[in-house]
């Protein structure tokens, strides 16, 4: 391949030149450089066209994607193509990843390596989610990003841990490496990353499409929550060495989910898969069912793989089932004692939590200082999962009195302790009491104690 | 008010809970852990596959001078480049075996690439390559250097020499050939200068494609980088997809596919580098 050197200029199809300022990284398809273009910093992905079957078709597909635009702001989408070099080499410009985002690879490793430029020594920096809500929000956003992409009629094809960045404080995500994205049914040569590829691709029977994306999505979500490989258990470890044939077997023709209820030959191994063993215990059953279905029935039947919207709804639910206890414990309601059908109790410190019932869902939402009602819980059609409609706070003028603050830009109708309904404007709030009812009129949802 | 009182689960598709999926039965002892730590965020890193890269380096007297100087320098520079290849999936370790009159490991066990520091080598003595093969075969075992409890990729084995073995290398190679790690490993060799015998090196790697040759100091540095980086890239990742032929892949289809890929990539890179060296009046 034609490599670029620092200071070298590359012509952009839209006009102007991008000047190479550094190397960001290299991967299977080429190298990513940092460049200056129109006095802004960009990332330039520069291809090794000798590894491509049809470079012209590949480039044309990127061009089409640039014209179509990104499905949403969750994508670091190709922006500009470069002109071809004399030997046919080309690349595209995309926005740089903001510093506040970490690679999913680093999240899985729980650290990132920073190299001291003077000594060349690599130093480990911890990478972990600030709180449980941020992690579940990341799961919602990942599911949603792929829903948006698939709704645009495209498939990602190469979904893996290197494909996106996550803000560990907020759960915001950015999908990168969008260059293999193609209309569903088309493929420009990419197979995917082993471990993330659907079994039918590993076996050589299928090419990546929307259905195989769904398998990869389930793997990514499993890794995010359970921090392990869904197919790597006792059966795989017994082989000791992952030869090509072993891989074909364990990720293709004879793949077995580590928690397949009907096949216990591949359970996680203590000492190696401790994360999976521990976290499997913590999650509510509906989450476990989703993964079991995806990795048992969905293993061989692509139509049985969960659709993105189901994942999304499930994680929206999981997020409002989080309890942050004053004792410092943060967990899902499934890990708290249910005192009655309206109250949870912390098994460690004994604190009890009242709950709020919503008209649009079965499960009650636990109440604690900081618990949030998200806009997406009131308006299921939204793609914004960060917007907060209400938050449980302590009254600043009357310490000890808890209430729900209206953080939305809409007025609520609320039954106050005198039994009368009042308007609660944005920025105002209402105390929590036995007869509380909130009507979120814009979304036709109401909530009560 | 159409949405009112509609449970969240009443999606178009029946909720998964109703599909009569059952939960796996778990051993009782798994419960103990919860008494200590039930924090959904307190994860340790995902379990990684391990890859050991073996460097077998000839430190006989004939390597003295420029060859050893180049080799030491390029090996120091190489470590940071290899560090990047493992990513989240693979923990890369390095083991260096030198052979001259005897054989010697640089460290008592393979060292993680993040912590590895190159110790400069010096040259003297004869070329006990057969002994090196025997030593390697002994160490490439679950009970010795390849003792990672988790899954391993087959090792990368990179041999560098500038001369013909002074001992019976065939006997050593025979011992090695019965070792499965060697059999499935990614093997490459670099012949340095005019004395090194490429046919003999091909016996070690199993094919000519994975044997390269360097005649100058500059070439030596280039070849070491090409071979080591390519081999560790291929070795630390799972196999890449073969062309779809609408027919299910068999074990034979994928057998030694990494070794073949290594041969192809090395040859591509080597030919590219050689073409740079062509003088103006050649090749017409």
Q: Which properties best describe this structure?
A:
heterodimer; A: 449 residues; alpha+beta; Phosphorylase Kinase, domain 1; six-stranded antiparallel β-sheet; B: 284 residues; alpha/beta; Rossmann fold; seven-stranded mixed β-sheet; 15% strand
Task: Explain how this protein is built.
The complex is a heterodimer of chains A (449) and B (284). Chain A is of the alpha+beta class. Chain A has helices spanning 55-68, 104-109, 132-151, 199-202, 210-226, 234-237, 244-253, 274-282, 285-295, 297-300, 308-320, 375-378, and strands at residues 9-11, 17-26, 30-37, 40-47, 80-81, 91-94, 102-103, 111-115, 122-126, 154-155, 164-166, 173-175, 182-183, 322-324, 330-332, 337-340, 343-345, 352-353, 355-358, 365-366, 372-374, 388-394, 402-406, 412-415, 421-424, 429-431, 437-440, 445-448. Chain A has three domains: 9-96, Phosphorylase Kinase, domain 1; 104-313, Transferase(Phosphotransferase) domain 1 (Transferase(Phosphotransferase), domain 1, Orthogonal Bundle); 354-448, Sandwich (Tumour Suppressor Smad4). Chain A contains twelve helices and 28 strands. A six-stranded antiparallel sheet of chain A has the order 1-2-3-4-6-5, with helices on one face. In chain A, strands 20-19-28-27-24-25 form a six-stranded antiparallel sheet, with no helix packed on it. Chain A has a four-stranded antiparallel sheet with strand order 21-22-23-26. In chain A, a hairpin with a 5-residue loop joins β24 (412-415) and β25. In chain A, α3 (132-151) packs antiparallel against α5 and α3 (132-151) packs antiparallel against α11 (308-320). The longest helix of chain A has 20 residues, at 132-151. The model of chain A has no long low-confidence stretch (mean pLDDT 92). With 284 residues, chain B is α/β, with parallel strands linked by helices. Chain B has one domain (49-238, 258-275): von Willebrand factor, type A domain (Rossmann fold, 3-Layer(aba) Sandwich). Helices cover 33% and strands 15% of the residues of chain B. Chain B has helices at 66-83, 129-139, 169-177, 180-184, 198-205, 217-235, 251-254, 257-276, and strands at 49-58, 90-99, 103-105, 111-112, 156-161, 186-192, 211-214. In chain B, α5 links the parallel β6 and β7 (211-214). In chain B, α1 packs parallel to α6. The longest helix of chain B has 20 residues, at 257-276. Chain B is globular, with a radius of gyration of 25 Å. The chains are: A alpha+beta (449), B alpha/beta (284). At the A-B interface, α2, β8, α7, α8 and α9 of A face α4, α7 and α8 of B.
